[in-house]
Amino acid sequence: MADLLPRQGKGSSGAEEKPLLLIADDDPSQRLLARYTLERESYQVVEADSGLACLEAVSHHQPDMVLLDAVMPDLDGFECCRRLHAQNPDMPILIVTALEDEAFVSEAFAAGASDYIPKPIHWSVLKRRLRHLLQANQAQRRLQQLNQELEAKVQERTAQLACQVADLEQLNRLKDHFLATVSHELRTPLTKIKLALELLGRTPLNEKQRQYRDIALQECEAEIQLINRLLDLQGLEGKDLGSAVAAIDLPHLWHSLIESAQQCTQARSLTLQVGDLPPSPWRFYSHPQLLTQILKELLDNACKFTQPGGTIRLEVQPIPEGVEFKIGNSAQIEPEHLPRLFERFYRVPTADPWAQPGSGLGLALVKQWVEHLKGHVRVSSEDGWTCFVLRLPSLEPSGRM
């Protein structure tokens, strides 16, 4: 049977809650001596005279630790330890045994004991072991509590972030819808204005009137180009271009790119360097129109941001999955700007922001087009040289992208 003792709570008048120990031993004198010694060390004590009584006392009192005799009637200490450990793996159990050979010690730890102490008990050793086991158990419980609190905070923060992401996605959809709607609504009147300005150019105008008309037409065309770019950003969503995939005549594409580069470099007094087209032909499938637009956009971007006297470099080479293009220019971009180059409307800050016209949409379009073609584009800038590397896989003509 168990000697039941009410446990002093933290809320009672007096000191902090004392650890509650359960002593399970069928020897009354051993229990009495243990109780006397431990209560002098400010422990609360509950007694049990058998293995079954020990199980009942643990269920009733929830002690902080159990001192368990190895040899007891009805249920020995090892089996009792196994059951206690199965019910509460975190509760420290100290086996007290006169059976100190290696086999019994191994059995004690296999049953779930935290430690063991031999009989006859050396009380100073027992006190130190109790203190160590209780401190370790307290630290473990505190760690578990902190982990639970952290997990709760992580789940709470994750839920908050999920809501924020959902809100941002909704805002992004609304923004895209707004841009698409406004762009469609603006393109029609701007097209009419452009037509009116072109017709105006066929009428007799003096020099000042023609100058004003040219300025208006130039700005109108720039606005129409901006609207077309905005529409292009929306145009690939949900669009299947699988049927438009075709074999690419790479020599023809390459020579066409070189011609465009020559016109650009000559107009801006730039030097053009062109790598050789690999002589061995290879089959490459992609979307011709999008690929041409991507290369033209990267070339125009390189030319636009290269100072007169600078250099443009073009290279192409086969890779196992498809083809790789490199378009470089002699210009330096600071490292902090590189991650944002493909963001919509982002332009690298300069002393004169209006020195180069543009909307900041060109590279955003490139990124979207490249991703639609299952490819990858990256940029590096060092030692006064910026290089865009475009890698595109060969696509199946009948595949869906």
Protein traits:
401 residues; alpha/beta; Rossmann fold; 6-stranded mixed sheet
- Report mean pLDDT, rounded to a whole number: 82
CATH class of one domain: Alpha Beta
Rg on CA atoms, Å: 40 Å
Annotated CATH architecture of one domain? 2-Layer Sandwich
CATH topology of one domain: Heat Shock Protein 90
DSSP summary: helix tally = 9
Q: Helix content range of the residues, please?
A: 40-55%
* Uncertain residue ranges: 2-15
Order of strands across the biggest sheet? 1-3-2-4-5-6
Order of helices and strands: EEHEHEHEHEHHEHEEHEEHEE
Largest sheet properties: 6 strands, mixed
Derived structural class: alpha/beta
Number of strands: 13
Distance between the termini: 76 Å
CATH superfamily of one domain: Histidine kinase-like ATPase, C-terminal domain
Description of the molecule:
- With 401 residues, the chain is α/β, with parallel strands linked by helices.
- Among the domains are: 2-121, Rossmann fold; 242-393, 2-Layer Sandwich (Heat Shock Protein 90).
- Helix content is 49%, strand content 17%.
- It has nine helices and 13 strands.
- The chain has helices at 28-40, 51-61, 77-87, 102-110, 123-200, 207-235, 250-267, 288-304, 362-372, and strands spanning 2-3, 20-24, 44-48, 65-69, 93-97, 115-118, 246-247, 271-274, 285-286, 311-319, 322-329, 376-382, 385-393.
- The chain has a six-stranded mixed beta sheet, sandwiched between helices.
- Helix 3 (77-87) links the parallel strand 4 and strand 5.
- Helix 5 runs antiparallel to helix 6, helix 7 (250-267) packs parallel to helix 8 (288-304) and helix 8 runs antiparallel to helix 9.
- The longest helix is centred in the middle third of the chain and has 78 residues, at 123-200.
- The protein is elongated.
